[in-house]
Write a structure and sequence with these properties.
10 strands; binds 6-(5-methyl-2-OXO-imidazolidin-4-yl)-hexanoic acid; binds iron/sulfur cluster; alpha/beta; 11 helices
Length: about 325
């Protein structure tokens, strides 16, 4: 039923199928494996902003580029827990904390993050973190503190990766994902459309994700949010058709995973978002802000949920499932 042995040719064939039949196929898979009409709402908070030594060409937070992001050291625990409380009252069931770190270091900041995780988890929320590279020991410490999932994106294909980031390798990313998996964490890993990649790169990324065993429990499909001052500031953003195609393919390949319509949702109209949900997306970021850029406003999301009769997914529906 759930396959991990997709060939590149099979992924290519699905990805390139005529869009309407691709959407219909994905919708059928969605109906079979997911609860139609239920959407997972996750809220993001940047707990440490800017000043990152990595050179990711899309990122507002790299020290290499002159962007207008406001650098901030690691937030206080109380500030983070209060934000999580607010996210919960807005309907979010997963709270995701992001730090602009290359990797986790074993220091007081990490201790503080572990305490944030304990306290956010105690609110009854799923807790996700995205902190850069991890050792197996750090992954275990995160798990022990109550972390549900670790977000670590592959972003694009292995062969295009070096065009976007030179300060680490694809293998570094895979190693961190393996460490998180070994520690018993659920994985959240996906990519970004609009980095100047080819169709083949998108196919290769989807192939890499869908041949992981088990599949990542959650797969964010981001559209580039162009940031002034970064090398990709003038990049052309992907069309809604590109997003729908990637979402539908991901849904068919990874039927049990949450497919997240992630960054770039703000640019889509309500009916374009509805199309993404029909094509298999069942998770979004909820709240006025992503990490450093604006997200779709809460008020318009509430109107969207009402119009589509969307029900928000309960917490912990997305635990390890394979
Ligand atoms: N520093 C950690 C890392 O890189 O893993 C965690 C934070 S990083 C900002 C999290 C993810 O956000 C990146 O892997 C990337 O996929 C996504 N992202 C960052 N900037 C983006 C942008 N401008 N548009 C779309 N996605 C973006
Ligand atoms: C993911 O795949 N997308 C989120 C989350 N995981 C960490 C981040 C999106 C960032 C968008 C640009 C910004 O706000 O800085
Ligand atoms: Fe740093 Fe993460 Fe941004 Fe890359 S994506 S520059 S690692 S914060």
């Amino acid at each position: 039923m759930v396959r991990h042995d997709w060939s590149l040719a099979e992924v290519r064939e699905i990805y390139r199928s005529p869009l309407l039949s691709l959407i219909m196929e994905a919708a059928a898979v969605h109906r079979q494996f997911q609860v139609p009409g239920q959407i997972q709402a996750c809220t993001l908070l940047s707990i440490k902003t800017g000043g990152c030594p990595e050179d990711c060409a899309y990122c507002a937070q790299s020290v290499r580029y002159r962007t207008d992001v406001k650098v901030h050291r690691l937030l206080d625990i109380e500030v983070v827990v209060e934000a999580a409380r607010q996210a919960k009252s807005a309907g979010a069931t997963r709270f995701c904390m992001g730090a602009a770190w290359r990797e986790v270091r074993n220091n007081r900041d990490f201790e503080r993050v572990l305490e944030m995780i304990r306290q956010v988890r105690a609110l009854g929320l799923e807790v996700c973190a995205t902190l850069g590279m991890l050792t197996p020991e750090q992954a275990s410490a995160l798990k022990e503190a109550g972390l549900t999932a670790y977000n670590h994106n592959l972003d694009t294909s292995e062969s295009y990766y070096g065009e976007i980031i030179t300060t680490r390798t694809y293998q570094d990313r895979l190693n961190t994902l393996a460490a998180a998996r070994m520690a018993g964490l659920s994985l959240c890993t996906g990519g970004i459309l609009g980095l100047g990649e080819s169709e083949e790169d998108r196919i290769a990324l989807l192939h890499t994700l869908s041949t992981m065993n088990p599949h990542p429990e959650s797969v964010p499909i981001n559209a580039l949010v162009p940031i002034e001052g970064t090398p990709l500031a003038q990049a052309e953003v992907p069309s809604v058709w590109d997003m729908v195609r990637a979402i539908a393919t991901a849904r068919i390949l990874m039927p049990k995973s949450m497919i997240r319509l992630a960054a770039g949702r703000e640019r889509l109209s309500p009916s374009e978002q509805a199309l993404c949900f029909v094509a298999g997306a069942n998770s979004i970021f909820l709240g006025d802000k992503l990490l450093t850029t604006p997200n779709a406003p809460l008020s318009s999301d509430e109107a969207l949920f009402a119009a589509l009769d969307v029900e928000l997914m309960p917490a912990f529906a997305d635990t390890l499932h394979e």
